[in-house]
Every structure is written in structure tokens, then in C-alpha cells.
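User: quick one, sequence for these C-alpha cells?
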């Protein structure tokens, strides 16, 4: 039976510096699990050579083996059950308010570190040029696509929301065209229907974008582009704070590209709202 990263660390005599590396990796697993060797060295502020020696000392034959082990460990430790068990054993569990906010802030900070600017800019251009934007998600991730759809509509786009069980059938019976795009939102244990929706759209020649938490999961690997947003929860389930922050970044960037048009449109909308007396005074 293959030894896990934690077992290897516990059974290997490490130097103080190597122990610090192991602790940093484990304490920041939702981020470190997806870094390259050079990125990991830069993040921990050590040399790439030291990272290589550390990995070899743990018994890994190559970096890809080490990285796969970390990714598997990450997926196991972020399930709702594991998150809840970790919370129960946390000495700060009585301060749920600050604990929950701190976790969301950490996810957003990690997202910012993980963003590949070129991928983000490409996604913005694809969304901006699309005729219709299809959004696929299930369960908690539906909150992300609902917010996304609302903002896209205000930007003058035609969003189509595909959610819940059976979304793949709704996509198959839709009028999706090659000048449309499909954005799929799912993280951790990727939902099969969301993945299949991406595969179907891709086979139709439609560009696909994933908002997910790993560049190597089943959704990211079938989509043309991936935007990474961690979803590690604080008490019992995943949190959508980072994916929603990603959506905000996307729509804000698109809005800036059309400042004059949107400024005029928003002014007209504001006048209609005031005429209809929609808000409390």
C-alpha cells in the first residue's frame, strides 16, 4: 500500500527546515497542492533544489507523484464530514463568527494567488464576445451562477441558467450555438452532470470555462479554460465566497470595457426606477 504524504512526513527524519516545509504545505493545502515545484519554492521562500531534496527524502520518485499525493489529500480533507470533524476539534470553535469570516477571507486570498492573469483575461474576452452565456451548476454552486446570470443580464448579455438534476438534458434540448459559451461551476467531488455538460458543449464546438478549485479535476480537464477559486468550508460544507468573488472580478472587468455604453444605460435605468418609486425613502 502506498504511503500518504502525512505518513511519509511522520516516518522520515526531517531537518528543522524540512519540517517547516512540511508544516507549511499541510497548513495551506488548498493552495500548495496545486503549485509547481518552482512556485512552491517561491511561496515558502526556499530554493527549488531544497524542495527537490525534500521530496526525494520522503521517498517520491518524481514531483508529479508528490503532487498527485497532495491533491488526493486535499480532496479528502475538504469533504463536509472532514471539515466538520476539524471544526469540532478546533479550540477556537466557540468564535464561529470570526472563524467563518477568516476562512472566507483565506479562500479569496488564495484565489488571488492562484489566478493566472492570462487565463482570466482570455475568459473575460470570451464572455464579452459571446452571444449567449450558458451557466451550469448544481446545488450550492447554483448560487454562483444565479449571481453571475443577474450581472450578465445587466451588462446586456443573454444568460441561460442550467441547474439541478437533469441539467444535461436541458442543455441537449437547448439551442446552444458555436458563438455561445458554457460556464460550469463545480468543485471538489465534481458532479457528473456538470462535467458531462462541458463535454457535450465542447463536442458541439462551444467554448467552455470552468470555475472550480483544481486545475486537474474532471471538470477543469475537459474545459477550454479554468478559473480557480478555493471552496474550503469552515464548519460543515463548502463556501462559495471565492467563486462569487471570481464572478465579481469577471463582470467588473467586462463592465470597464464598455464604460460609455453602460454609463448611459444605467442612467436611463436609474430614471425608470425613480419614476416607479421602487425604493424606500
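Assistant:
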Amino acid at each position: 500500500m502506498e504511503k500518504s504524504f502525512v505518513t511519509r512526513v511522520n516516518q522520515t527524519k526531517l531537518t528543522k527546515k524540512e519540517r517547516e516545509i512540511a508544516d507549511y504545505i499541510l497548513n495551506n493545502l488548498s493552495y500548495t497542492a496545486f503549485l509547481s515545484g518552482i512556485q512552491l519554492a517561491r511561496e515558502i521562500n526556499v530554493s527549488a533544489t531544497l524542495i527537490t531534496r525534500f521530496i526525494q527524502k520522503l521517498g517520491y520518485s518524481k514531483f508529479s507523484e508528490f503532487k498527485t499525493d497532495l491533491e488526493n489529500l486535499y480532496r479528502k480533507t475538504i469533504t463536509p464530514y472532514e471539515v466538520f470533524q476539524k471544526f469540532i476539534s478546533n479550540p477556537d470553535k466557540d468564535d464561529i463568527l470570526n472563524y467563518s469570516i477568516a476562512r472566507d477571507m483565506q479562500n479569496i486570498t488564495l484565489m488571488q494567488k492562484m489566478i493566472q492573469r492570462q487565463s482570466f483575461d482570455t475568459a473575460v474576452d470570451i464572455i464579452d464576445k459571446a452571444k449567449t452565456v450558458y451557466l451550469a451548476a448544481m446545488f450550492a454552486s447554483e448560487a454562483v451562477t444565479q449571481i453571475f446570470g443577474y450581472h450578465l443580464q445587466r451588462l446586456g448579455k443573454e444568460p441561460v441558467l442550467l441547474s439541478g438534476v437533469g441539467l444535461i438534458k436541458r442543455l441537449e434540448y437547448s439551442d446552444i450555438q458555436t458563438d455561445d459559451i458554457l460556464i460550469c461551476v463545480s468543485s471538489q467531488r465534481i458532479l457528473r452532470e456538470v462535467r458531462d455538460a462541458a463535454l457535450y458543449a465542447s463536442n458541439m464546438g462551444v467554448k467552455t470555462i470552468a470555475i472550480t478549485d483544481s486545475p486537474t479535476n474532471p471538470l477543469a480537464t475537459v474545459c477550454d479554460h479554468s478559473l480557480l477559486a478555493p471552496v474550503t468550508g469552515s464548519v460543515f460544507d463548502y463556501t462559495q465566497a471565492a467563486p462569487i468573488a471570481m464572478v465579481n472580478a469577471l463582470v467588473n472587468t467586462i463592465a470597464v470595457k464598455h464604460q460609455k455604453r453602460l454609463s448611459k444605460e444605467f442612467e436611463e435605468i436609474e430614471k425608470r426606477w425613480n419614476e416607479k418609486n421602487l425604493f424606500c425613502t
